[in-house]
Structure formats: C-alpha cells, structure tokens
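Pilot study result, target chain (676 residues):
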Amino acid sequence: MSPDIRPDPDKLLALIGNDEGERARGHLKIFFGSSAGVGKTFAMLTEARRRQAEGRDVMIGVVEHHGRAETRALVEGLPVLPLQAIDHRGVTVHEFDLDAALVRKPSLILMDEFAHTNAPNSRHPKRWQDVEELLDNGIDVYTTLNVQHLDSINDQVARLTGIWVKETVPDTIFDSADEIALIDTPSDELLKRLAEGKVYVAEGANKRAAENFFKKSNLLALREIALRRTAERVDAQSDELNAAMGQNEAQVGQKIMLLIGPDPLSTRLIRHAKRMATRGRAPWYAVYLQSERHERLDEKGRTRIEQYLRLAESLGAQIVRLSGMRPAQDILAYAQQNGFTRIVVGYRRPKWWLRPFRGTFAQHLIEASDGIEITVVHGATGTAREPVTAGAIIRPFLARPLDYGLATAGVALGTAIAFPFREVTPSNNLAMIYLTVVVIVAARLGLGPSILASMLSVPAFNFFFTDPYYTFNFYDSYYYVTFAFMLVTSLVVGSLTARLSRHARLVSNRERETQILYGLTRGLSAVRGIDAICEVAIRHLSGPFSLDVTVFVRTPSGLQPYPQGIITTDMREMGAVNWVSANGLMAGRDTDTMPSANGLYLPLLAEKETFGVLGLTARDAGHPFNGAEILQFEAFASLIAGALQRTRRSDEAAESKVESENEKLRNVLLSSLSHD
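Predicted structure:
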C-alpha cells in the first residue's frame, strides 16, 4: 500500500498565510555576489530601470557608484532621495534618510551595500535594519551583498584571505529575502576588470587589493562559497514546499546544540554550528550553562557571553540558559530530555602542567555521552584565548575585610570551644571542631575566608592541642600526617561548601525571578482598569530590579504615561517610545534600535496588537541590561499587555451592552408611539 502523500492542509494554509502577510510587507530582493566588482550594483540599477519603465515608482535611497561611468549612467533618470547630514564629533556624515523615505513611500527603493554600518546616533546601527523597517512599512527594496558579509561565513573568508570583514548581515535576514539574484562573474574576467580599473578607482588601490584580496585562489574559493550558499537556500525553500505538498522523503531529523562560553573561540563555534545546521536543515540551539564559574567572571567576561548569545540569535539559533553545578552531566541530561542528536563544543589544549591533573570539558562530555554525537571544534594555535587577568584570578577570593576578620574570629571561637576538652578527649577529635568552623565560614562568607580559616586552623591546633602546649613544636612525628590531612580536608571541604553556597544563590535568584513573575501575574489578575494595572506593574517591577518604570498606554488621544503627571521632555526618549508604539518592536538601551537612549522600551503586545509601551530606566546608569533580564522584561510586558487587552475587551463589551439596551429602549418607544 503506497504511503499517504497528500499535502498537509495546515502547512498549506500556513504557506498561504505567509504569502498574504508578505504582500502587506515589502518585497526584498538581494543581488548577491562573491566579491566587489562582479556587477551587483549594475544589475540592480538595470532591473530598477526596467521596473520604472513598467510604471513603478522607483527611487534611489543609496547607491555607491565608486566613480564608474557605467554605473553613473544608469543612475541618471532615477529620482534620488537626498541624504541626511549627521554631525558626529564635529564631522558631518551623510547617511540614508529613513524618515524621509517613509514619508515619501515609493513603491521600490534601492539600497546599495546591505551590510553598511550607519553613523553614530542614527536610528539603527546597520543599514539592513533600515531595510527591515522599510519592508515593514510595505516598501519593496533592492539591495546588494557580497558573500564575505554573511555572518556565518565571516570566519571562513578570514581564513581564506587573512582579512576580517567587520560589517556583516545576519543569515536570518538573508534567508528571509523574497528573492536572491546571484551575480556571477568568472575569476579571470574579474581580475581583468580589476586591471582595467573598473573595480576600484582610487590611485594605487587596485594593486593593494589584488595583492591582499583579489588573488585568483581567493576569488575561486569565494565564488564556490557564494554558489553553495545560494544552493543551500534554494534547497531549504524546496524542502519547505515539498513538506507542505506531502512530497518529502522521510528523514531522521537532526537537532543541534551549541555550547557557548566566555572563550573567544565561541564566535567560531557559532558560525560552524550555523553552517552545519544550514547544510543539515536542522534546528539549532545555543546553550549557556550558568555554573559557579559564571560568578567568577568579571563584567567584560559577562558582556562577551551576551555578545556571543546575541550573535547566535541573529544567525537563527534558539537561546537557552541553564544553571547547574556539574556542567557535563547537566548538559547531557538536558540534551537527552529534549531530543538533541548532536552537541558542538570547543576544545583548547590545556597547559602542559595541568594535563596530568584534569581533562578538558570536551573530554568529559565525550566520556559521558550516550547516543549523542559530539562535534569538537579545535581552537587553532595562536588564536585568541579567553583573557586571564589578575582580577579573574583573585576574584574567587575577594571578600570584605570584615569577612576575613570574622573567619579569624571563627577559628578563635573554635579554639575556645575545644579548649575545655583538651585533657578529656583525643586531640584528633578536636580537629573536627576546626573543620566545622571551616564549613560554616565557607557557607556564610565564601571561598577566600574559608581558605584563611583552613590555614589558621592548623597552627591553632598545633599551638593549643599538641604536646608540648603553647609552642609550634611537637614530639610525635605522626602529627605531620595529621596536619597535612587536616589542611587538605579543610581546603577541600571549604571549597565544596563555597561551591554549594554559590549554586544556592543561583537557585535563589531563579526562585526570586519566578516569585516576581507569579506576583505580577496574580496582581494583574486581581485588578481591573488601566490605572490599577499600571500601578501593579510599576510596583512589581521598580523595586526588585531598581528601575524607574513608566507605562505608556495607547488611547484615542495618543500615548498616556503612567504614573499620571509624568512629562517626558527628552526628544530622544519620546522618539524611542513613539517608534516602539508604531512598529511593535523593542528599542532603546542595549538594543539594536536607538541604543543611545537612556531607557529600554518594550511593546505591550497581545494578539499582534500594540496596547502601549513599557519604559524601563536603570537607576544605576552604568548597569547594562543583559539578555536574561531582557527576556524577563519581555515576559512581564506580555503579561501587562494581556491585562490591558482584557480591560479593553471588557470596556468594549460594556459599551456594546449599553448600546444594545439603548437600541431596545428606542425600539420600545418607537413601537409605543406607533401604537398610539
């Protein structure tokens, strides 16, 4: 009996829905090439002129002709949007005017150099973000992109050419384009164009470019990468369509987990995992395990973690944050529970003097894995390692001077407790009192004070409890062994207790987050009315996170801020609030949109409708919002939006009921008048 290969109706409906949604959104076409000079801008302008001849409203937003006569000739006759002047530290920079484009709203706009970085103080740091906003407003966009600017391929290109390209575009943006036009030029022809001066026009630039980048071997490799990346995208689209039509062959699905750490090798791991997921058409997840090591990271280390997670998310990864004390076992347990088939992990050869004492995390993972494939990416010799600073070394031992004083006092107290029993119990039993002191100090004060307590316990025990008393001499040689075991045991127990204490703090923080979420949910469910909802939201968010909270609620007359009476005169902040309200996307501090704003602004979205904006400003101006906090804030914003939606629906239902009653009364009156 042949298998049922009928189309999946749900998937077909999803495709139809996506198509209808895309009609409301603008159409993005990328002219994609292997390097500069292949003719991307020329092809884009040629097609734009054809569209203009068909009667479409075409406008140039940005086109870089690089002095080429052929390109300049194609620009003539096409309307050009004036650039806006941005002053930055006394220097005037001309950039694309996004607001003017949204007001003018052409049918099709040309945006050359998709990966361009905008000037500081622009609305978006990157041009591709400007393009996204144009698309969201229903404007079609043509743009150009070289393969080396794709984020997942960035490291491959660097290894080929020796040049790190800083301006990149996330692969998710590339993959979401409606159309990719591959502009392919043979390497020999491109080198000929370079020799004729048709690639760069600056004096002496051709020779340097040819030597550093435009080698035939590099061009061949880049051309191959561009062709392969385009083919992968076509295959993915074909698989999606075949799956909806019920024509795909049964395949064993892959699910990839990438492990993120503070090591700079993580950037290479992320791009490697992205390429692996693209080739296998598999979902992939970037996982960060927050163990006690996280507590020892300085601010720069924690910032690197957030940067790596944002990079992975921009390339299409799902972000997962875990906490645990046994990294390898905790990671494998999560992988088995969630059906992962492969784990990608980095490996660096440890220092020679550490090799006999401990294995690497990758080795522990391989030894404990059961049925899960482990892919190890080696950190090449000479590549940057996680920086080891003096601060990172001493951070585990940092504590207040008072804590070290309390550790010393604890040893003195243990001595005082043990002293009356010196003559009635063996001295080895009294050593347990010192061990108890070390455990208590480690649990309450941390690792550094516990080590001090361990170091003080041995001489105190020797001085007060070994014969001869009140000297550091002793008669029995077995005390050497006693002192050694006492010191080692104290250090080990103190270290383990300190780790348990740090883990308990992690669990306590998670519990605190859950309690805040529960409290907000319960508070919002118990009140009605906009004022009450905003009061509950502000009360639950401002205190625990040290935030100044403002809720901007959409009303027929505009955005109404709560608490009542707040007047925001900062145009930059209100610009961010209005943008979030209009676009339904997050903006402000520590985001990619208007990052110079002081506050973080999140849309209050429920069922794709924006009910307002949640504004959060840290009271400590130097405190950055990390990814975990932003995820929490998004969850809070969703709860607040749901409460506002319920209030809106309740008000609408009440108004509808009043109108219905009025209509009934009107009908009764008309009926009675007619009867009379």
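One observation from the pilot: The first strand starts at residue 28 and ends at 33. A full batch analysis is planned for the follow-on phase.
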